[in-house]
Structures are given as structure tokens and as C-alpha cells.
Amino acid sequence: MNRKILDLAIPNIVSNITVPLLGLVDMTLMGHLGSAVYIGAISLGGVIFNFLYWMFAFLRMGTSGFTAQATGRKDRKESELILGRSFALALFFGVLLIILQVPIEWVSFRILGGSEEVKQLASQYFYIRIWAAPATIGLYSLNGWFIGMQNAKVPMTVAIIINVANIIFSVLFVFALGMKSDGVALGTVLSQYMGLFLSLWFARKKFDAPLSRLSKKQILDIKALRIFMLVNSDIFIRTLCIIGVFTFFTSKSAGMNNTVLAVNSLLLQFFMFFSFFMDGFAYAGEALAGKYFGAGSRAKLKKVSQLLFLWGTSLAIVFSLIYLFAGNQIVALLTDQVSLREAAKPFIWWTALVPISGFAAFIWDGIYIGATASKGMRNSMLAATFLLFVPGFLLFKDSLGNDALWLAMILFVFGRGLFQTILAKRAIFNRMA
User: Fold this and answer.
1) Is the distance from CB of 416 to CB of 381 less than 8 angstroms?
2) C-alpha to C-alpha distance for 297 and 294, rounded to whole angstroms
3) What does pTM read for this prediction?
């Protein structure tokens, strides 16, 4: 069983690591332009796209869970139909975002704080990167399907190509052509479409699953779409809570001053690096838990859950120790601005608490998604957000300032895992009795 977990987890870890590494490169490029406003610009722009794209993360999660269960039942036709429905929805939502780009930009910058200079640069970033929406959301659908098909190597290959291309484009546009945050945005657009077409090619050549052979009537089956969207509506609410927490975190950082915004943006890279790393095991959980849930094997589902938590605990300890003892050195790699390095020092120790506090939430997410236990995910997230994160910040914001934001974040990630643990028996295992 450990071999099956690692066969799925390691490729996902490799592909996921390329994402935060790309974020680190973007931050580093902006961090060496001589002003904190460039870091703030891609941070605010990134928050907007996190909000937009994370809203559609249900397409990857729902597709993964349903496909894994179809794989467990050995129902190949159904797995292809799931891909067709998911991908059609992805393209629809992507085009819709492009159509609505002006009101989206207007609302986003009315909600987020920051100086006028930062917002002007972030706006330029937004109007370029928005054109990647169909490709980015389409990749959610395709990656979820590959994972549900028990194949993590294709998403790994595509992710590496996308992010290496993105880094090359960004370096070229920023250093060779003299662009700034707009160059980073353009690099993202080009690389995302490259990844979309490559993924479609893999679906056709490796899995013999061309979308062209699926009829519109099959894809638009009302009953099947209703079930798909019902589960995904719970995941959507769960995702909105995550978006709300990170948007609130960044907005409050920007409301303090540009230095706090830049510092918290740098330190969030610690969080994102760990989260993408842990998601490798969460994705393994999606694939295997979904497969065993679909096959009705309660014993194997329990076994894989136990092993996933052993891996999660071990990795959390390692990451916490690295962040605790090498945090200052990591920040020094991200920026050459001495003032930002010094401003970050009082808050680095919070990053060491993130892995050990939050690993359970990542592991449970994978298991819940595989079992399509969407209500349990939704309820756990709502509880962590409104019972822990919001009160945690409001109670201490006046006395602790920026530390209150980090305290609230730690309570949030810990609470997610705690509430999911409490609900797991009823939400997942009792459904197999």
C-alpha cells in the first residue's frame, strides 16, 4: 500500500513543487527591482486570481473523486463522460471570466487595500493574466481526471513543462525586454495555454479518451450534471472559505502598510510551498480513497488513511524544523532588500507552526474528496473559518497587530483538521457500512 501511495504522491509532489517555485521566482524577480511595490503588485494580483481560480477548484476535486470511484467500479465509459462534463463546464466558466473582466477588476480593487501605485501595477497584471482563464480552469478539469484515473505522471509532466516555460518567459520579459509585473503576467498566459493543449494530447494518446467522440446529449445529461454540481456546490462553499481567509489576510496586511504587505506576501510562500508539497499526498488520497470507496472496500480505505497520516505527520515535523531554524536564510533568498529581511524576522516563527498545525487538514481533504464526502468538507471549513479564524483575529487585532493575523491563520489550519477528524466516521466510513 505504501508503494501505491508513493507512486501517486511523488509525481504530484514534483509537479506541485514547481508551482511554489514559480511563485518564488516571481517574488525574487520583483524583489530585485528596487521597490516593494512590485512585490505588492503581484501579491494583490495573485490574490484576485486565487479568488477567481480557487472558486473553480471544485472542478478538479469533483472530477477526481467521481473518476476514481468510476475506476474502482471499472466503469471506463462513465469516467470519460465525467471528463466531458467537467471540461465543458471549465471552458464555459473560463470564457465567462474574460467577458466579465472589467467589473471583476473594479470590484476586486474596491475590496482590496494597498497604495495607488501598487494597485495601478496590479491592474496591469490583472488585464493580461485574465486571458489565461479558460486554459487554467480547463487544466483543473483535466488534472482531476488524470488523478482519478490513478495516473499522476501526466499531471507531473505537464506541470513541469508549464512552470519551466513560465519561468523562462518571465525572466525573458522582465530582464531582456524590460517589463515588470506585466511581464510575469504575460509569461503565465502563454505557459497555461501550452499546458492545456499538451494535456488534451495526453488524454487522447495515452488514455484513448478524445472528447470529440462524446455526444452533447451524453455530456449534458441533466441527472448526471445535477449530481456532479450538487457535490461540487459543497466543495465550492468550502473553497470560498479558503479564498475568503487568504483574501482577508492579504487585505488586512495591505491595510497596515506596504512593508507588512510585502513581508506577509514573502512569508506566505513558506505556507504555499508546504501546502503544495502536502497536496501530493492529498492527491494520492483522492485517487486511492476514491478507488476503494467505489469498490466498496472499507478495510483498504482505512488502511490507506492510516498510512497517509503517518506520511503527513513525518513531513510536517521536517518542514516545521526547517522553517524554525532556516527561516531567515530562506527570506534572504527571496529578497535583497535589507529592510524587508529585518521586518520579516519577528514573524518567521509563525511559519514554523503552519506544518505541524495544518497537515491533518491536507490529508483529510484528499480522503474526503475521494469519497465525495462534500458536506463534511463544507461543514468543517465553515466551522474553522467562523469559529476560529474570524474570532481569533478580532479578539487580538488591537493588541497584537500583524501577529493577530498569523495567530488566526494557525487556528484556521488546525481547526480544519480537527473538525474533519470529528466528522470522518459519519461522513465517510459509515456510508460504506
Assistant:
1) yes
2) 8
3) 0.80
